[in-house]
Amino acid sequence: MKINKSVFLFLAVVMLISLMAGCSGSKGTLDGEWAYIHDTDKAALIIESGKATLDGVKYGCTYDDAFITLTDSQSNVKKLRYVVTEKGILLYKATDYMRSGEGSSSDVVGEWKDTPDNWSYEFTAEGTFVEDGFFSGTYEVNEAEGTITLTYNDDMDETVIYYSVSGDTLTIEYPWPMVKIK
Known about the structure:
- By secondary structure, the chain is mainly beta.
- It is 13% helix and 51% strand.
- The chain is built from one helix and 14 strands; from the N terminus they run H-E-E-E-E-E-E-E-E-E-E-E-E-E-E.
- The protein has one helix at 2-24; strands at residues 32-36, 45-48, 51-54, 57-63, 67-71, 77-84, 89-99, 110-114, 119-123, 128-131, 135-142, 147-152, 159-166, 169-180.
- Strands 1, 2, 3, 4, 5, 6, 7, 8, 9, 10, 11, 12, 13 and 14 form a 14-stranded antiparallel sheet that branches.
- 16% of the residues are buried.
């Protein structure tokens, strides 16, 4: 009888090890190559085996169901929010904008500019906005969720962005739609 229990225990341990080994090589939701929807010929985000390349820069990578955590070669950490959609993912990339005009330091009302890329936002107290000096519409702030909903005047989808204000810096996390290409 001892032999039967030993054999059973041995087989159970072997099965458990096999299951664990089999799962370690499985791919996660984001593993693979992703492209921006406006340029599907080129992968902009590649995630594989704990590593990632985003816009040509290599990182160490982990992710959960809400954030991708990227670590560069100097151990700087960047957390990118993402949302899975029917078509792919929305990858939220953060950009800092500096206040360029008058305005309160505690809200989004005012003119904001990102010098390196020459991007901009202007939010009025009346609830209107202009993005990059061209796209306009109305906006609504949800302070509890840290979001701004942009409703464009043109034929563009309503867009939810995440934001935070610290002094004269407005950080915006803008969603970039991506599709899986491999």
